[in-house]
Amino acid sequence: MKNKEYYISIEIGGTNLRYSIIDNELNIIYFNKIKTKDFSDAYDKIEYLSKNIIDDIMSKYKIKAIAFSLASLLDKTRRIAQSSPMINNFENVELADIFEKKYNIDVFLQKDVNSLLLYDINKNHLDKNGIIVGIYLGTGLGNAIAVDGKIHYGFSGGSAELGHIPALGCYNKCDCGKTGCIETLVSGRKLEQIANNHNIKDISSIFNYFDDIEELKDFVRYFAIAVATEISILDPNAVIIGGGVPVMKNFPLDFFENEVKNNLRAPNPRNDINIIYSDNDINAGVIGSIISVLGL
């Protein structure tokens, strides 16, 4: 029997900040969430995390390490949050060093989508050999790539930025600082724009109008093009589709899958794609970051 070890896991996503105490067998001891906006609006974000989350937990548990899962571009060493488009004034923050010095324990940083992919691989008991990609459509368009069970970070640490590939003819300004990113055409924020354009008050019902709104069809087409682009380059063993948008009521899964296939070469990879839909467990990010820390 393993000796119990406890970890603080903090996931700072585009919409919610979730935090948990998790043991080394991936059991959740405690879970809570707040709106990311509250954190984003805080003047001193380090103090906010300490006073509102970490100090209290550290006073009650012997913590082995802190794991952060972030909607941020991380540096190559995964010690610094370099760019965080959805969080105000959170650039080039040496998060790992700051909290290691403050609490004298190990601190690990991971991109939120990487944590989600590790969780989904674990949850679905997928064979880790080969390439598995995760594409998550929520507030933004997130992407992660695992090769033989290990996250592929790339040479500079900035791999899998699928949401920021350029879309020809698109001149929308992206929060990342670039112009024309495909994420400006397919994301939760774009869906809100479409809802406003068509006076749809309840965004959760927006796909009820899919057959009547060409803008919605284009939204799903752009999503399919992004997915097909990645499949065409990597020819992965499996593609995990997740995030809040694909699980919305009446999201056109058949239309989406047909559009993906129509943008792939035949016979391969078109005939061999393996699409798996994430169950979008609310705990996926906080558990996934601990899977990363433990190397599971």
From TrEMBL:
Pfam families: ROK. Keywords: Kinase, Transferase. SUPFAM superfamilies: Actin-like ATPase domain. GO terms for molecular function: D-allose kinase activity. Transmembrane segments: none annotated. Gene3D superfamilies: 3.30.420.40. Its EC number is 2.7.1.55. It comes from the Bacteria. PANTHER family: BIFUNCTIONAL UDP-N-ACETYLGLUCOSAMINE 2-EPIMERASE_N-ACETYLMANNOSAMINE KINASE (PTHR18964:SF149), ROK (REPRESSOR, ORF, KINASE) FAMILY (PTHR18964). NCBIfam families: PRK09698.1 (NF007251). Belongs to the ROK (NagC/XylR) family. This is Allose kinase. It comes from Brachyspira pilosicoli (Serpulina pilosicoli).
